[in-house]
Design a protein that fits this description.
11 helices; 3-stranded antiparallel beta sheet; alpha+beta; Serine Threonine Protein Phosphatase 5, Tetratricopeptide repeat; TolA/TonB C-terminal domain; 13 strands; Fusion Protein Consisting Of Minor Coat Protein, Glycine Rich Linker, Tola, And A His Tag, Chain: A, Domain 2; globular; disordered N terminus
Length: about 375
């Protein structure tokens, strides 16, 4: 009888414990971040970037390429999932995507070393309270090239000016990143145009070492036209005199910074256009995340296809989808996307080099197939 009572009491206790288990969140208002940057008084976007770099430095500074994987030529992305507790501690790391050759076990070892070293993350927050959150960490394995490639210098010359491509702190708009985003996502429409059109542009801003502004190239991703570009230029010029220069090695330097400008209708009659615009960019964001974390080109392409149904001809989406098509050897489709994108933006060097030959080959092959079918 005593044994039966003890068993029932134990089961009852376990039941209570299960009910008291704290909820683990998938997504929260503030996601956990790796420690090391919280005392630097950085703007929100720079803080996240700093924390990301600190995490990558820890991961890739400790990870070793397994001999088995190296000899087998195994490359790819392992994903480790763990919980960042409300106290910032790493809990229950597990392999959720494996590529073989011991890569998953090595990635898991490095994540477990955070537990051994008692590295405490800045915990995620919901409604201002620290909560436990699931965190997916992609770790990429890439074999080095047979011939070392000389690293490009972190700058280039424009006349007598040295323009840096790498810096410790990006240029800062005087009103802060939130105010800049608000300014660039609520641009007034040109007079006399269709105010139900939505689209984006990306501008290269040259910020010199004393905070001066010069507008460089403007890429009209949505083919909005000159009137819209003129409005974009007026808004960009309104930020002149309100920038702090980028910093490198403790001193101000010249740099280029890309900014995105958004034309999105606010009229009630254009509500569906605005909704389609937001949905398209949400789908494109999902595509980029899928491609970065899982390298599943086909799943990413499906998302870009859906985004392009909502915003046909969007150059950003075509550019990204075209490169994904190249990855899976859908060369004819890649040519169609990248040739269209090339009319608006400069392609990456490797794409620009291979594209003419690839497209010419596909054109010849198509002609041959047509002749065979006649």
């Amino acid at each position: 009888m005593k044994l039966k009572f003890l068993l029932l009491f134990t089961l009852f206790s376990l039941s209570l414990s299960a009910q008291e288990v704290e909820e683990i969140f998938q997504v929260v208002e503030e996601m956990p971040v790796f420690p090391g940057c919280e005392d630097r008084d950085l703007p929100a976007d720079e803080y996240k970037k700093c924390a990301q770099e600190a995490m990558l430095q820890f991961i890739y500074g400790n990870i070793q390429y397994p001999t088995e994987a190296r000899e087998a030529g195994i490359e790819g992305t392992v994903v480790i999932r763990f919980v960042v507790g409300a106290d910032g501690g790493v809990q229950n790391p597990q392999i959720v995507r494996e590529i073989g050759g011991g890569c998953g076990a090595e990635a898991l070892r490095v994540v477990n070393s955070m537990v051994e070293q008692d590295i405490r993350w800045i915990p995620g927050k919901n409604r201002g309270e620290a909560v436990p959150v699931y965190f997916n960490l992609p770790i990429k394995y890439r074999l080095e090239q047979e011939e070392p490639v000389e690293k490009a210098p972190p700058y280039f010359m424009v006349g007598a000016d040295t323009v840096f491509t790498e810096f410790n702190q990006a240029p800062i708009y005087g009103g802060g990143p939130e105010e800049l985003e608000e300014l660039l996502t609520s641009i007034p429409y040109p007079p006399g145009v269709d105010s139900c059109i939505a689209g984006t542009m990306v501008a290269q801003l040259f910020i010199n070492r004393v905070g001066g502004l010069r507008i460089g190239d403007i890429f009209d991703y949505s083919n909005l036209g000159f009137d819209y570009q003129f409005e974009a230029i007026k808004v960009l010029n309104s930020t002149s005199g309100q920038w702090q220069a980028a910093q490198r090695g403790g001193r101000p330097v010249n740099c280029y910074v890309p900014v995105r400008l958004v034309f999105k209708p606010v009229d009630e009659a254009c509500q569906q256009t605005a909704l389609d615009f937001d949905r398209a960019y949400a789908l494109a964001g999902e595509a980029e995340q899928i491609y970065a974390e899982t390298e599943d080109a086909e799943a990413a392409i499906a998302k870009w296809n859906a985004a392009l149904e909502l915003l046909p001809g969007n150059i950003e989406f075509l550019l990204l989808r075209g490169q994904a098509y190249l990855e899976i050897n859908e060369n004819a489709k890649a040519c169609a996307d990248l040739q269209q994108a090339k009319e608006v933006v400069a392609l990456a060097d490797w794409v620009a080099q291979v594209l003419p030959l690839l497209c010419e080959f596909e054109a010849v092959k198509s002609e041959e197939e047509t002749e065979e079918g006649q």
